[in-house]
Amino acid sequence: MNIAVNKVSKRYGDIQALTDISFEVEGNGCLVLLGPNGAGKTTLMKIMTNIIRPTSGEVRINGINVREDPGRALASVGSLIEQPEFYPYITGYEALMFTCMIKGLSQERCISEVNRVSGLTHCRDYLNRKTKEYSRGMKQRVGLAAALIGNPDIIILDEPTFGLDPNGMMEIREIILNLKNVKLIVLSTHLIYEAELLADHIGIIDHGHLIHFGPVEKDRYLEVRGRIRGTDLKLNGVDIINRDENRIILRKNSDIENWEIIKALESSGSSIETFDYYSVIEDLYRNSVSHSDAES
Amino acid sequence: MISWVSSMPNKFSVAFSYYFKNYYRSKSFYLMLALIIIISGIMSYFSFRYQSKINTFLDRFDSTTITTSLKSRALDYIWSFVLVDIPVYAAVFFGSPSISSEIEDRTAFHIFSLPVGRMTILSAKYAAAYAATVLISLIYIILEAIITIRIYGTIDMSSYLLSLMLTLIFIASVLAFTFFISSIFNRNIYAYITVLIIYFLVFNAVDVITSLLYSTTSPFLLNNAANIIMEVFVNINLFTFSPTISLSPASASKIFLAVAVMIIYLVASLAAATVLFENKEAK
User: Fold this and answer.
1) Interface pTM, i.e. ipTM
2) Which of B104, B110, B186 to mutate to test the interface with A (most CBs of A within 10 A)?
């Protein structure tokens, strides 16, 4: 399971949508592409799935160039790009069967596969209706089911919770959390809390540039609120990232337990009101995007 | 690559069946079906009601040549006169939005990301649209034979089958032409309007100018080539300023020329549509 994006640029007339994007992800886990609206996340995902062609650069999936051999490159990929639309006079069941059979599975296998994914995404009740009758949320669920058909190793999802009700959002996130243990998932969102929940790797895109890419160490950052004492406070096993009188942000650099940190802070005279994991992605996002805005 | 190429026929049949379902369940299909039933009904009524008019028309010519076979061919000519435009409307309905709708209706996001070549998608969609158009046209063509046999007790089967074959070629070429126009645009309405303007205005304008200047029709125009569908019964061409009227069927050379024109439109249009579709982007 490998996706390699190499110096991908995309230009629409006068608009430079993407500039020299490069990264590589391998193995199971979830790469979240985060960025404001219009940053270029969807454009990059469309290039990854052969919906559009890059102006320069290439995307390789499991070593196969998507542009040159989309049939093989995308054989191990399931995708949901933008708001999914299906042919209006086809039922959801037929759309899923078509997706399955195009992926080369036998009719018998497709029947059980459609049954599996429709159960997973809770769209079985309306699969026999024509897709022109579907609401946005229904289409999203069937689109997600189509992405999961054939149990692909790599799943590319563009804002998969868009258009869903709160329960639907939670269900989809739960599915992704389970899948990322055995699949490579690339997901775009502009919701920071979604990224925090799902990401193992984060790529922040702004104005068509990849301004940050790397693993997420969300359980290593801590935010402590209360009355923080000791101007020369030093704690073994943690780095102090930021602090003031009412808040301190720490990064663990060892296997130190949380209770040990609390004890150390209290012994230095601090009184702790709240103790939580710090939103490292939000911090990264704010720093990266504001820096990018300043440069542009 | 080899495994992907070898799986193409299977993917083609899967895609064909998928697209054909979408066509025959569409409102366009039922609208065309209703129209063809109405037109067939009207033609059947007039064939019985004004049967004597054919005899009156043929009596102007040498009476020794007027046979029942000729009368049946004259009736088939009239039916084919109407038939010539039916595939055009069907092709406009089925072909014009074929590619532009992928972008306008955003179905391309799902289809393009599947592990199937765009060539397979295009050919399957074309075959499905062709099947739907032929299905619609066959209702009329079969009824034409039934009514002719009912009235005259016979039908000139060789002319009828030749006309049928030419109709099938014409459907293929006019549909390919609409696919080509559709591949240029990202909006269905532009594709519809452009096909109608080119076929019914531009072609006719060119034909009128050619006819005025050179007293002949333009053989390279698809609408003129399509006239061969009726001229294989009796060689009457009323579309020029110097109309030709002959009770004999069109000559072999005329048939070959018309077929060649249709095949050139078919091949050129499909080639252009393929290139455009391969490079189509769903932005």
Assistant:
1) 0.84
2) B110
Encoded tokens for A14? 């006068």
pTM higher than 0.90: no
| pLDDT over 90, % of chain A | 49
A285 vs chain B: nearest CA distance in angstroms? Answer: 26
Q: What is the pLDDT of residue A95?
A: 96
Give me the amino acid identity at A257: E
Rg (CA), chain B: 21
Contact indicator for B109, A95 with CB cutoff of 8 Å: no
Of A12, A69, A103, the CB nearest to B283: A12
Sheet holding A209-215, edge to edge: A77-80, A154-158, A184-189, A29-34, A201-206, A209-215
CA–CA dist A80, A189 (Å, integer): 13
pLDDT grade, residue B1 (50/70/90)? very low
Residue B37 pLDDT > 60, yes or no? yes
Q: Residue B115 gets which letter from DSSP?
A: S
The pLDDT tens digits for B104-147 are 989 999 998 899 989 999 999 999 999 999 999 999 999 999 99
Which residues in chain A have Cβ-Cβ distances shorter than 8 Å to B116? 71, 102
Structure token pair of residue B40: 């067939």
Percent of chain A past pLDDT 70, that is, above it, reads 96
Q: Which residue has the tokens 């639907």?
A: A168
Whether residues B110 and A84 touch (CB distance < 8 A) is answered with yes
Which structure tokens are listed for B141?
């063509």
- Torsion, Cα of B156, B160, B161, B164 (10° steps): 180
- Whole-angstrom distance, CA of residue B110 vs CA of residue A46: 11
The answer to whether residues B208 and B242 touch, using CB atoms and an 8 Å cutoff, is no
Cα–Cα distance, A156 to A135 (Å, whole number): 22
Mutate to test the interface with B, among A86, A102, A131, A155 (most CBs of B within 10 A): A102
Token pair listed for A35: 């960025």
